[in-house]
Structures are given as C-alpha cells and as structure tokens.
Amino acid sequence: xxxxxxxxxxxxxxxxxxxxxxxxxxxxxxxxxxxxxxxxxxxxxxxxxxxxxxxxxxxxxxxxxxxxxxxxxxxxxxxxxxxxxxxxxxxxxxxxxxxxxxxxxxxxxxxxxxxxxxxxxxxxxxxxxxxxxxxxxxxxxxxxxxxxxxxxxxxxxxxxxxxxxxxxxxxxxxxxxxxxxxxxxxxxxxxxxxxxxxxxxxxxxxxxxxxxxxxxxxxxxxxxxxxxxxxxxxxxxxxxxxxxxxxxxxxxxxxxxxxxxxxxxxxxxxxxxxxxxxxxxxxxxxxxxxxxxxxxxxxxxxxxxxxxxxxxxxxxxxxxxxxxxxxxxxxxxxxxxxxxxxxxxxxxxxxxxxxxxxxxxxxxxxxxxxxxxxxxxxxxxxxxxxxxxxxxxxxxxxxxxxxxx
Length: 405
What we know:
The chain is of the alpha/beta class. The protein has helices at residues 25-44, 48-51, 94-100, 107-114, 133-150, 158-171, 183-188, 190-193, 199-210, 223-234, 253-256, 289-300, 314-325, 335-338, 352-355, 373-381, 389-392; strands at 3-4, 11-14, 22-23, 64-67, 72-76, 82-87, 90-91, 124-127, 194-195, 214-218, 244-247, 261-265, 268-273, 282-286, 307-311, 328-332, 384-386, 401-402. The strands form 4 sheets. Strands 13-12-14-11-10-2-15-16-17 form a 9-stranded mixed sheet, with helices on both faces. The protein has a 5-stranded antiparallel sheet with strand order 7-6-5-4-8. A two-stranded antiparallel ribbon has the order 1-18. It comes from Psylliodes chrysocephalus.
C-alpha cells in the first residue's frame, strides 16, 4: 500500500471555501435559498407556492448535473451512464430515463466524462460543490413551477434565471465591497455562517511554514469576498500564513490557460504582473500555473519543488491540477463524516442532513451503485481523501497516511 505525508512536499496550496474555510452549511444554504427564491418570485414570476415550501434537505446531494433542456437532475457513472435522474422533484424510473436518454446515455455528459475540465456545453451545469446545493433544489422546484403553469417544455430557461439571481445576490464581483446582495447578512451574522478554524489547525499551518514549506492560497472567490471569508474563519492575521494569495483564479482554467496575474490596489485590479515580478506575501487575481510554478521555484530555491494542492471541488481542485500539471492533490470530502464512513465515524457532522440523501443514496460506491463519476475521479487523481483540513491537523506534520484507494 502506498504512503502519503504532507511533510514530503516543498510547496502546499489550499483552496478557501469548503477547504480552509468551513461553512455552517444549513444556515448558509437557507440564506442563499431564501434570497434566490425571493428573486425568482419577484423578478421572474415563478410560483410562490412551490418555491417557498420548506427546504427539503434530503433532496440534494453534491455532484448532480442539471440538464437545462429537459429540466432534469442526473447522476452519472465514470463512463457517462446515467444512474439516476429526476425531472424537477419527480423521481424518474428506468423507463422514464430511457425516454429522455436512450441507452441511459446523453451526448453532453458522454463528452464531459472524457474532458471534465472542458465544460462549454450550455445544455448542462455541474453542481459539484456544497455551495450549489440550494441551486439544485431551486432548479428542481422551478421546473415544477413551469410544468404546473405551462406543462412540460422542450427547453427550460430555469438555469439562466437562476444564474441571473445568483449574480444579483452573491456571484457578481464587488457585491461584497458594496454591501449588496446577501453580503450585509454575511457580515452581520458571520458567526452563524462560518466555522472558526481551530487553534490546532492554525498551529499546524504555522508548523508547515516553520519547516520551510511555502504555502499558497488559491480561491475562485472575488478578493473582497475571499477576504471576508478568510478573516471570519482564519482570523485577522490570515494573510501572514501564505507566501502568495490568488483570488478569482478561475479554476480549472488556471491550470490549462496562461492568463496574466493582475495586481490589486485595495480590491481594484490594476496592471498585469509577470512571473518574475510576483512578490512574496502579495495578493493577486487571475494568473496561471506556469507563472505560479516559476514563483514557487524562486521562493523555495528548488529547481523542481514538489507541490501539493488541497481542495474540495473535484474537478477544479483535484482532477485539473493533477491531470494538467502533474501536481499531487488531496480531496476534501465532508461526506466521509456525514455518512460516518469507516475510519471517520467518531465525528458527528453538524450539517449531515444537508450533505447526505436517502433519495440519491451515498456519495460513495454501494452495492446498488458500484461507482459514481465523482468518486472515480477522487480515486484516480487524489493521493488521499479526508473530511477536512481540520482532520489533517489532528496529526503531526510528518504523519504518514496509508493511501486509501
């Protein structure tokens, strides 16, 4: 059995949301769902009766795919076979699935499984992380709303409406800076939204630095949003933990394209920054792996530093850095605790009811479903899979883990 130790790496990168920064998912998702449902009801005329029903936490699971044309949520195997599906909130039988997807396959997802980081198909949207759980439920209920009023459609515009709503409440840049959308509530009630990192985890990060490891933070969040999240979770001195901070990185494109880094004046982007001009302790947006790697070579004084990246998004944080950049990765998978998998049953996840689903079943292989697309990616591209960075910090920096797969 192969072994893994964080201590074997010269440079270690971290995602922010759902990795270093853990959310109180039930509270956060209720906030997003309430704001989004209000937008769709008032701005897009969706059914108040359907959208304002109590949140069904059991309906959602991480990793669903929304079929925008048919109004379906689907779950797929590693080869693209459609394992399960729902039309709106209505569960589809095997016979129903075949009516939509002959042979249980769909061209869009058949292409997707061959190139997971290349997702330009507007016929579907990945709902690959926990921050998408309220979107999955909203999508399904919005489809129900349309069906109730207009009957089944050949092309649903639900995701466009949801995307417009999400831009108005959280996803547009600078909403946090200008106290728009849900950000006034996030700031006012941050203790109800974020888990504060333990002192043990902060000490673990400091110990990595004391051993000469170079740490970097790379997040897809806008700088103002990332700063709020990091301060609420890591504390006021959070920036001192990292040798470079990259916001709005646009993963997975960060690992496949060569966008220039941009400097920041406050939260305002200014000029492009070349690799040789990146500063230790600096904060930037955009960027690319080629320039970041050159920066890490410089500050580590190693010709070929060994790099590890830790994150929760299976495509952005696990597959893409490993497949395109040959970077080792650790997958953060809170389902391990929520489902009380072997080795992780001692902890009771506070948001287990929001994470697990008796409708869709386990995130992991079962007797009924031998393999899912997402877990297959974790097995192939992650060194280990753990429920949190807090879990890693329970062990000494030089602890050796058995590779699980």
